[in-house]
Amino acid sequence: MVVIGDWHATLDSFNIKGSFTNTIEHNMDPPPILTSSDSAATSSAGEERHAEIKWDEIGFGIVSTDFMYVMKCSKGEDFGDGSLIPYGNIELPPSAGILNYGQGVLEGLKAYRTKDGSIVLFRPEENARRIKIGAERMCMPSPSVEQFVHAIKKTVIANKRWVPPFGQGSLYIRPLLLGTGSVLGLSPSPEYMLLIYTTPVKSYHKGPLNLVIKDELYRAISGPGGTGGIKSITNYSPAYKALNEAREEGFSDILYLDAATGKFIEEVTGCNIFVVKGNSITTPEAVGTILPGITRKSIIDIAIDLGYQVEERGVPVEELLQADEVFCTGTAVVINPVFSVTYNKTKAKYKTGSGTVSSKLYETLTGIQTGLVQDTRGWTLQVD
Questions:
Q1: Residue 106 zone, left/alpha/beta (φ > 0; ψ -120 to 50; rest)
Q2: Which 3 state secondary structure label does DSSP give 190?
Q3: Low-confidence residues of the chain, pLDDT below 50?
């Protein structure tokens, strides 16, 4: 077990106690990712082992990799240097701010193996800026953009044997900024930690989505005062109830409406949404309740480059139901086409497959991420 120090001690008193267990954690029995001969292998941080990893058996779940990155600071101070430690459990006081009041934000990004074998990140500085915005909203200190990107690079290099080969997935990177110090009254935590772990993944969804709109539950309050526009840890579990009900009814996911009027679409549970009609692409404006997705932002730029007219504005449900195409974007889903949307007794169906707008955007985006398409905007960052 990793013990994240004594939170009443000084910043340089970070100690590791106990032992680490490299287990695979998942809701279902995980595939045997490593062969028996490789599972006993060891290496130092940054040394790539040529493991016989069964890449075809990896899905979208947790696989224990080799190292994680930890950086911490006290309230009112700046983050100092972080360090790599073996992947494992962490220990927190039961009174930690993250456990009692949910003071925390998260991020998600990926590392990709290009055709020539290099490893690249996609726009990590955007994640660094977004976590700073979220941290400020949650009254938390945050690392600088340079510290964040450096930490991501160090974590990927240490786990580079887990970056799937070209065309076989990506390494998902999950930074967590947590209030780890003890609090009982309603106040910000006195101690904070940035924790970064990784896991190899493939697609989040398998195939086009069948979405349903339900107006009994809403994902974010209307207006600019809430937390819908940041990646607060507390934003996600409230969606489980509606999501579970939708899946029990045979749908892939929920498409949420605005809480003020119930007339405009906002987001799917964990991704942004786009509506296509002719040469026009429309997406809800990322203000207040809409997360400013980095994939979303990139797709807008790519679509404009390809000659499409892109609008960011309110999108009425009626406009959605009359669209030619609908697709979702996000780090986990990349670009996922929508086959149908069900609203009350209406079920609208959309174009999917080759030749669609979403397929063209997908090919361009993933081409940039894997080196098949020239990166003219400087979006990728080589890490090895």
A1: beta
A2: coil
A3: 1-32, 35-43, 45-47, 50
CB 103 within 8 A of CB 190: no
CB of 132 closer than 8 Å to CB of 142? yes
Q: What are phi and psi of 196, to 5 degrees?
A: -125, 125
Our CA angle for 255, 258, 263, nearest 5°, is: 90
Residue type, 160: K
Whole-angstrom Cα distance, residue 366 to residue 371?
8
| Catalytic residue chosen out of the listed positions 231, 241, 347, 360 | 231
* 149 sits in which H/E element: helix 145-158
Q: Which residues pair with 326 in a beta bridge?
A: 275
pTM to 2 decimal places: 0.86
Of the candidates 327, 332, 328, 229, the one whose C-alpha atom is nearest the C-alpha of residue 286 is 229
As to burial, measured by CB atoms within 10 angstroms (0-12 exposed, 13-18 middle, 19+ buried), residue 323 is buried
Cα distance between residue 75 and residue 245, in whole Å: 41
User: Hey, what are 359's tokens?
Assistant: 């397929």
Residue corresponding to tokens 């972080």: 82
Environment class of residue 345 by beta-carbon count within 10 Å: exposed (0-12), middle (13-18) or buried (19+)? exposed
160 is a catalytic site residue: no
pLDDT at residue 9, as a whole number: 34
Q: What is the phi/psi pair of residue 47, to 5°?
A: -90, 120
Task: Determine the 3-state secondary structure of 300 from DSSP.
Answer: helix
- CB-based contact 212:246 (threshold 8 Å): yes
What pLDDT, on the 0 to 100 scale, is given for residue 182?
A: 97
pLDDT at position 287 is 84
